[in-house]
Amino acid sequence: MKKETSPLLRNSAVQSLLASLLCILAGLLLGYIVLLIINPSGANDAIVAIVKNFMTYSKPKAQMKNLGNTLVKTAPLIMCSLSILFAFKAGLFNIGAAGQYVVGAGAALYCALALQMPWYLCLLAAALAGALLGSVSGLLKAYCNVNEVISCIMLNWISLYSVNILLTNVKEPSSPYTFMLHSTNASAILPSMGLPELFSGNKYVTIAIPITIVVAIFIWILLEKTKLGYELKATGYNKNAAKYCGMKEKKNLVMTMAIAGALAGAGAALFYLTGIEQWSCTVSTIPPMGFNGISAAFLGGLNPIGSIFSSYFIQHITSGGAYVDKTMYSAQISDLISSIIIYLCGFVLFFKYALNRHLDRRDEQKAKKSDHVNAEEGGANK
Predict the structure, then answer these.
(1) Quick one: which of 307, 306, 309, 274 has its CA closest to 293?
(2) Which end of the chain is more exposed for a tag (fewer CB within 10 A), N or C?
(3) Strands (DSSP E) found in the chain
(4) Cβ contact 51:341 at 8 Å
């Protein structure tokens, strides 16, 4: 049946955008209801503060400086979301992005602090470490038929404690934190390329932000415009059919997980090599960045370009929680609201499915009505 609905509503990108906006609005509404339940008197100010984030400041310089901090934390989230969606496009669920992010941080910091390497070698080491860990899950999936979710979860915890042990060699004597990059190896800090001047002298703003944007564009081209991307997606859809067509399905599975791991590992380097944060060698929980990448990927409609905007939004909401009145609400209230939005992100694909079903029914009714009118006109003419 010919589709009579406007092509705009049938466009996948438009549907993803509408579904994502619906998730965001629903999440903010539910978050506001939670705020009302906790303390009705401050709910309005709290939700406004979370949404405004750095705009809470009245001076432009303060706004730009805190916008820079949000962008610095957005860069690794974009990379993790790209890691998730790249694997998902190839039919794999890379829940191991969290572990790959951890080993990327460990490799970057060890190379920077212990081996005194420059930033580009530290970044490369982080990507290779993430790729190596990702390829382990890929090999287990390809040759032993081990579900990648199971192997990734196991490797997440192995990675965390292994990195903690490794980085104890480069931690401060009187604290569990690693040495500061600025005072230990300034060459390991990512170049700024004049960007701090745009953000009121925020020294943590580096080329990490433009790098992630370039990587997102590259991943989109790889997946949508190249033979390799087609083969990776074909293998994910049906590896037996891919094998029948002459594709090396096992190699493609391993390559997919290796590339996904490299993205997550590089994301950690793009964060820690700014010097904005030190690694704690006593941390017992996996950093949430890899898991938040799942929500960013789905909120962005599993599109590399969409992941840029969805990652920024999630980080914007999370950072906005710092401006909530702590005498009325817990400091984690923004995490709760972002968690609600993250939960709703899982319904993005469902919303697109429901919209297409609605459009199909509407087109079918129009077609039936048109046929009925044509039949009546034909009878009248006779």
Answers:
(1) 307
(2) C
(3) none
(4) no
